[in-house]
Amino acid sequence: MGRITEDLIRRNAEHNDSEIFSLEELSLHQQEIERLENVDKWCQDLKILYLQNNLIAKIENISRLKKLQYLNLALNNIEKIENLEGCEGLEKLDLTVNFVGALSSIKILRHNINLKEIFLMGNPCADFEGYREFVVATLPQLQRLDGKEIERSERIKALQNYPVIEEKIREQETAYCLKRSKEKKEAERKLQEEEEKEKWKENKSNPGFDGRWYTDINNTIPYSVLQRNEKEHPEIEENKVNKKTPDELEKEFWEKPTLYSPESRLETHRYLEKQRNKEKSSDKTKKEKPPRTLITADGRVLNINDPKLDFSLKDDEENNQIVLDLAVYRFMDTSLMDVNVQPTYVRIMVKGKPFQLVLPAEVKPDSSSAKRSQTTGHLVITMPKVGEVITANRKARTHEKNNEKNKLQQKKRSKQIEKLEVDPSKYSFPDVTNIVQEKKTASRKIKATSPVVPCAEDSNFEDNPEVPPLI
Known about the structure:
Blueprint lengths: L5 H6 L13 E3 L11 H4 L5 E3 L19 E3 L19 E3 L22 E3 L11 H8 L5 E2 L2 E2 L2 H9 L1 H44 L17 H10 L1 H8 L4 H10 L6 H26 L16 E2 L5 E6 L4 E6 L10 E5 L3 E6 L2 E6 L10 E4 L6 E6 L9 H22 L23 H11 L22
Parallel strand pairs: 1-2, 2-3, 3-4, 4-5, 5-6
Antiparallel strand pairs: 6-7, 8-13, 9-10, 10-15, 11-12, 12-13, 14-15
Helix pairs in contact: 3-4, 3-5, 6-7
């Protein structure tokens, strides 16, 4: 059941900064409102009030709206025009497609001297013989009825025939009232039957064949009791034989012929409300899924990717760290993500959905960092490893060892003093011209210029003292 609450009025008063005390126009159409209330207390400055397409059965609680000029109550369940005397500024009244059968109730509108236009089409009274003449003669201040202008000649004829027309209207009203009383009784009877059926179904769903509890399961049900229940509730056997699906029951409800009355409108409203409640309950049961298992009972961490995001896990051996690149949506707000790094796994909650990955090595959670790319939106998590890796980076270490050996050799060479080799018999001072030359070339030249001293062991050697030495 929809009600006119302060929150509802404020939500429909956005054009007035949600202020209701100075509100001049209010639209509450299609809100399933069944009772007109509280408007005259909170919005006394109203000039226009829209209440069409609701379930309002009575005009009430608007007599304080002195400034009200236009009242729209089309497509409601109103059967009588009443409680409008206090609306002194009322100029237009719309009661299209209601259930006004008491046409003589329009006499109260004589006090609304500013009333210029009224709509009553679609009501049972609009089918009465002499309907238009009676309204025109009863309300002399009217200028238009059902969108058609009232001419002067039409008003004169209506006033001349008013006594005869009034008697006809009263007769038709009494006939309609008798018909409506029968319809109301029939609707009440159907409503009671439906309530009894629902109670029986609830009792049937409880343990026990008749809704009562039994402690002895060996007791059999007496045949007389079964027979009595079948007589009192024959529809149970029919339901046993003819079980209908929900779609068939819904089709049967909408195809069932009914009279257009306030009761049928309320019945349709209640049926739709039940269907909505069922859908909500089913949605809740669907949404209430069991919690996702992230870690098993034996402590084993599972790999989970509920957000279904692409990712890459890189083992950076040079920097001794593990890098996770998660392809998060580019325009997703960072506040919708929660990162949790543990020594053996990493978990990221993306909009409530878990992404969990087991790491290949133990990491340091306190030294880990998470960054978001401004261009791609990817989430990059850097996790340093615990300790040094023994098996990895062998090539790099051998290369480092070779470099260290080379450095030591160079240091040893730099400490050694290189000396030039010269023949003291030929030169009393060193040859400065050959100092800048390379060692190899200098040694070659020295070897080439050094005299060949013959060996004494040679058989052909003859030492002649008279021969001068070679220069």
